[in-house]
Design a protein that fits this description.
Helix content of chain B: 25-40%
Radius of gyration of chain B: 31 Å
Strand content of chain A: under 5%
Largest interface: A-B, 61 and 64 residues
Helix content of chain A: over 70%
Shape of chain B: globular
Oligomer: heterodimer
Mean pLDDT of chain A: 88
Largest sheet of chain B: 5 strands, mixed
Strand order of the largest sheet of chain B: 17-16-18-15-19
Distance between the termini of chain A: 6 Å
Largest sheet of chain A: none
Distance between the termini of chain B: 91 Å
Number of helices of chain B: 16
Number of strands of chain B: 22
Radius of gyration of chain A: 24 Å
Number of helices of chain A: 13
Low-confidence stretches of chain B: 1-32, 54-62
Shape of chain A: globular
Structural class of chain B: alpha+beta
Low-confidence stretches of chain A: none
């Protein structure tokens, strides 16, 4: 098992190198740079001044030099400073990551709490009204875009209840209650979408597993439905579900800019998208590499979870 | 076990099972079964009924729009001190350094944390929305030499910097102005304005004497612009830039600034305008989504709100009928069609005139802006006349005359039209509709095929500001400018780096230069009118209709009227020093 883990980590290196080349190149291909974004609207800046400012920021170095400087920063875990704000990127990430992680975890919890029971009920009540209702919930979750849903939620909460979460993010440690209020609605919006896909997968895999011989044996032995479904069937049905959930968690950790924008949360999504729009190269590159590394680790965790769920799976 | 053949076992087929439990054949209570078709048809009918019930009625077009006042006078009641003003803001400052950006996101804060030498009237001083009387801010008085090249400013004594390190409340002196203006001139977005300065003297600690390279009677107005805030040299010396800290002499101290979250300004107890500001704290919440800002206003989390259209005003009034609404009057348009006039075909005035006449501007006002908006012109009309220009006053080339346009374009050598490109950045949603309407008009009336490209912020501004593009662009001018000098010389002179519309007209150059040397107000109006007429005659900038929207306040806000070209949630935020909360 340890050799498997080490091998996977070693194989991650070329993945990360390739990711770094792609993000570095794509950012340089896009027209404009951070100085253009900052000053162009104001006019009034001569080409000579812009050239000097670019030089001060190292933006006039050859690309390979810029790349090597950045790689060194990554390897030494010193991502440098934002071109735009001059704030250390590590500080910006320290503020943004907890927001995204909290949102992702809450959305995942809400999504699973909704999806697994509904998926199981749908599977065990196949073609009954409860099954159709569950599937309708799933289809609507997959079809309704989260920007639309989020806008509806915030608008009608204000109109019908005269209430929306207090704007201006506060961390959980500053005020747990206010923090949870701020995250409940966006987590619900995201969780609803996650639940939709997860519910469908759960239903499908549980249906499949319920037709297996060992489940028929369990019925024949006279075990109760709850034990058969939740103890015997569900555990085996969860393997594909975990693959799906792992992928969704990766997407959430990359940041969900639309939901963060609607609910005014300063997470990784907003940080990264703003950095892309304003060509803040160090911030974009660092964020992308962080997400790439997180996805590599997440996939490894998902694979290791299979072994825990299914004793037949062994990693050499 | 039954067998069919020796050595072979037959397994009985599986029987369909009810997974709720029980053995096959056991009698189960039958559940109602709904087939898929019935289920879907019931859901579809229900959804259609729900949509019909909840869909809002559409406003009929061409109705006379309701009117709202364009000025909210100051309250006659004595001001109350205290309270917190909160605003959900669309803008986040990109940086805190006023040398590097003119962004409204910065100056919504900097206008209250810092002062300028000169200012425009506040809401409780102004006689109306277009009152542009210059008043002293850090300067008590000022005077210009007879040749308008030397300006002397007498500073207000007893002004202190905020009581935070490294200034620690020390006195504001003339040397501070000198270091600030020299820093502006050295590099950055203010350089063009401050590079007019030949030298600065500080004969004593309350006198600043500025020598200009050329005469400019309007120079003090430039120092009154929202962006000309005075910052301390100590911060620049210690930090190397102004990106991390903002310290000033203003009515509010920047207590907290968390990017993409909030800025909190707290009252400066040592402010030179004794007894003010009235409000204890002003919190600006970074709220990029428009629906969320509306929801914040509806629920009382935001005291000031801006909406683009009458329909938006109606929806807010449904839940907040007591809200105070001001029609934000715009004296000019900030957006228009920019043509690459330094090369064919747009260097031919007949082509520009034809294009202008082919565009139906009134249609933009009637459809996109619901009958509420201005047709579009470039120089604020109050600088040359008292009333808003009529359509006729905009000149013959601003009238929608497609037949004449077609004839003129043919005379210019393009009887069959031509192809060109147009790029733009969607500053607000209505802009895309406007761009498409222009595309339709030019194709229909002149057979000009426009390929439209929508760009992101940085790509657009980089290309537009660089000035090397061909074809057309949806152009703009910066939003902070109040002064006549900014609106004429700085935006229109061929040598100015702010001449984004890339025109070079010797008549305009001469008039703008002459305007700078004309102290008499009546003569200034006459020259400005000539510049206006010349611009429209030569179609140097093809301004398009625009609606400045509406400001909405909670009913407990006082002294909150927004003055023209100085929206008090943006560049005009300094007036909030006179606002107060009546509850």
């Amino acid at each position: 098992m340890y050799k498997y883990i080490l091998r996977r980590l070693f194989l991650a290196i070329p993945v990360l190198v390739l990711s770094s080349l792609i993000v570095f190149s794509l950012m340089r291909v896009m027209p404009g740079d951070a100085l253009t974004a900052l000053m162009a609207e104001s006019g009034n800046v001569s080409a000579k001044d812009l050239k000097k400012l670019r030089g001060d920021l190292g933006l006039d170095l050859p690309y390979y030099e810029q790349y090597l400087i950045w790689v060194k920063q990554m390897v030494t875990l010193d991502p440098g400073y934002s071109i735009f704000t001059n704030e250390p990127i590590a500080v910006a990430l320290k503020k943004a990551i907890p927001v995204t992680v909290e949102l992702a975890v809450l959305a995942m919890i809400l999504g699973l709490v909704i999806a697994i029971p509904i998926g199981v009920i749908s599977a065990t009540r196949q073609d009954k009204p409860s099954d159709y209702a569950g599937r309708l919930v799933a289809i609507s979750g997959l079809s309704l875009p989260d920007f639309w849903l989020g806008t509806l939620v915030i608008t009608f909460a204000a109109i019908w209840f005269g209430w929306i979460p207090k704007l201006g993010y506060v961390s959980f440690w500053e005020s747990p209650w206010q923090n949870l209020q701020q995250f409940l609605l966006p987590a619900a919006v995201l969780g609803y979408r996650l639940a939709a896909a997860t519910m469908r997968m759960t239903r499908s895999t549980v249906l499949e597993v319920l037709r297996e011989d060992y489940v028929r044996t369990a019925w024949a032995k006279g075990l109760g439905e709850r034990i058969i479904v939740y103890k015997h069937a569900l555990k085996n049905a969860l393997i594909p579900v975990i693959t799906l959930v792992g992928g969704q968690l990766g997407t959430l950790l990359a940041g969900t800019v639309i939901v963060e924008t609607i609910f005014a949360l300063p997470g990784m999504g907003r940080l990264t998208v703003e950095a892309i729009l304003f060509r803040d190269y160090p911030v974009v590159q660092t964020n992308v590499m962080l997400v790439a590394a997180a996805l590599v680790l997440l996939n490894l965790v998902v694979d290791l979870t299979y072994a825990w769920l299914d004793p037949r799976i062994r990693y050499q | 076990m039954p067998t069919d053949e020796p050595g072979r076992t037959t397994v009985p087929p599986r029987e369909p099972r009810d997974h709720r439990g029980g053995q096959p054949g056991t009698a189960q209570r039958a559940e109602p079964r709904v087939n898929r078709r019935e289920f879907l048809s019931r859901v579809g009918l229900g959804a259609a009924a729900a949509t019909a019930i909840t869909a809002p009625p559409r406003r009929a077009r061409a109705q006379t729009p309701p009117s709202y006042p364009d000025w909210i006078p100051a309250s006659p009641k004595p001001a109350k001190r205290g309270g917190t003003l909160t605003r959900a803001s669309a803008w986040d400052p990109p940086v805190l350094d006023p040398r590097l950006t003119n962004s409204v996101g910065l100056f919504q804060i900097a206008s209250l944390v810092c002062n300028r030498l000169i200012r425009y009237p506040f809401a409780d001083e102004a006689s109306g929305t277009t009152d542009l009387t210059l008043k002293g801010d850090l300067a008590e008085s000022w005077s210009g030499s007879s040749d308008q090249r030397v300006w002397t400013f007498k500073l207000r004594p007893g002004v202190k910097w905020h009581n935070v390190p490294p200034l620690n409340g020390r006195e504001f002196v003339a040397a501070d102005v000198k270091s600030c203006y020299e820093a502006y001139a050295k590099e950055g977005v203010q350089a063009f304005t401050f590079q007019e300065i030949e030298g600065i003297e500080t004969p004593d600690k309350h006198t600043v004497r500025i020598h200009l390279k050329s005469p400019n009677v309007m120079f003090p107005q430039n120092l009154g612009e929202a962006v000309a805030v005075v910052f301390p040299r100590e911060v620049l010396e210690e930090d190397g830039d102004l990106k991390k800290r903002m310290i000033g002499t203003g009515p509010y101290v920047l207590k907290e600034h968390t990017r993409k979250v909030r800025a909190v300004l707290s009252r400066n107890p040592d402010y030179f305008d004794k007894g003010r500001p009235y409000i204890d704290e002003y919190t600006i919440l970074s709220t990029p989504d428009a629906a969320t800002r509306t929801a914040a206003f509806r629920t009382g989390q935001s005291d000031i709100h801006w909406v683009a259209s009458l329909a938006d005003v109606d929806t807010v009034r449904k839940t907040n009928p007591q809200a105070v609404i001001e029609e934000y009057k715009f004296l000019q348009t900030p957006f228009g069609l920019a043509l690459a006039q330094d090369k064919p075909p747009f260097n031919d005035v007949r082509v520009r005139r034809a294009i202008s006449m082919a565009v139906d501007r009134q249609k933009h006002v009637d459809t996109i802006y619901e009958g509420h908006g201005i047709l579009g012109w470039g120089i604020p009309y109050i600088y040359f006349q008292d009333q808003r220009p009529t359509a006729a006053q905009l000149g013959p080339w601003w009238q929608h005359k497609p037949a004449e346009a077609k004839k003129l374009l043919a005379e210019a050598g393009h009887p069959n039209g031509f192809q060109t490109t147009l790029f733009y950045y969607e500053y607000f949603p209505q802009m895309t509709s406007q761009v498409q309407l222009v595309q339709q008009d030019l194709k229909k009336h002149l057979n000009i095929d426009i390929k439209i490209t929508k760009l992101d912020y940085t790509t657009y501004y980089g290309r537009y500001a660089e000035g090397k593009w061909d074809g057309m662009a949806w152009g703009f001018k910066t939003g902070y400018a109040v002064s006549l000098d900014e609106q004429t010389y700085q935006y229109m002179h061929s040598k100015s780096t702010k001449n984004y519309f890339r025109f070079s007209d010797p008549v305009v150059d001469e008039l703008c230069t002459k305007l700078r040397q004309t102290p008499d107000r009546a003569e200034q109006r006459a020259i400005t009118k000539k510049i206006f007429d010349r611009e429209h005659d030569q179609v140097l900038r093809m301004w398009m209709p625009y609606d400045a929207g509406f400001l909405i306040w909670q009913p407990h806000m006082r002294n909150i009227g927004a003055l023209a070209m100085r929206r008090n949630d943006g560049y005009g935020a300094s007036t909030l020093a006179r606002a107060w909360i009546d509850k």
